[in-house]
């Protein structure tokens, strides 16, 4: 990565922030306090952080259900945290959690519960940039599972035919829920779905510098008007698909990937290159933990949405204000 020491420290801060936030979410979930079911990205942070780092603030991002990094890098922490608790300061004032959230203000396209459904929305954002003559690249993150869906192939094809400014980022964590992607994809490397006319690249998704480099090249290409790129980041999640799902992946596989932890890799690099010292690393960790604690404390006090928030969403609304249960 051809960037300055300051930029590298920034990348590390983002990596650690996402890690600490999700650890805190897991902790809160396990102690019974999060209404939203966590689908954690712990282990995959370098993909979201590195690729988002390559974008300008107003470039569009369409995250997958698991991509937390861009949301945490762009949206105020209190909004995201309140979203998990379904309180009034969350996205849409408590009508939705943060799981599929979008925010026009932060150039984040909301996704839906349907795997792959956001790919064509991201291509549409790229098309609108081109039609309007504005310089806004569109980057879409999705899991390996989405590459078996029709939406992926429609999106790739249309973006390639029209040379749209879109960057496709596959977060290939090798599993689609409890199925190994190798059993359901007709190619070994998912970039092979790109065919001949669409540039594609495989990247080590555990190394944020490498992700920044390939994403920067793809974003530059999109900005020049040379069209889309497909990036396949090989990565792994440390947690089960969602916290209610029993872990069935081989223990040795998980242990192997943990030895290439994205936060550890980056921390060691900063130390080896004299970009940071232990004291700075500890200070950053402490201030991140404090910031997250404050956001959780904020959400704990944040009121539930007004009953009116549920009008035109559910029929015959009844809100139990003590438990916040909507019947
Ligand atoms: C069309 C569709 N089929 C099935 C599901 C249920 N489902 C939710 S997430 C998921 C797995 C997605 O796997 P992948 O795309 O690899 O993303 P990852 O969870 O690994 O990040 C499935 C099957 C769904 N939401 N939508
Ligand atoms: Mg997957």
TrEMBL record:
Its cofactor is thiamine diphosphate. GO terms for biological process: organic acid metabolic process; sulfur compound biosynthetic process. It comes from the Archaea. SUPFAM superfamilies: Thiamin diphosphate-binding fold (THDP-binding). Keywords: Oxidoreductase, Thiamine pyrophosphate. GO terms for molecular function: oxidoreductase activity. CDD domains: TPP_E1_PDC_ADC_BCADC (cd02000). Transmembrane segments: none annotated. This is Thiamine pyrophosphate-dependent dehydrogenase E1 component subunit alpha. InterPro entries: DH_E1, PDH_E1_Alpha_Subunit, THDP-binding. Residues 17-305 form the Dehydrogenase E1 component domain. The keyword Oxidoreductase applies.
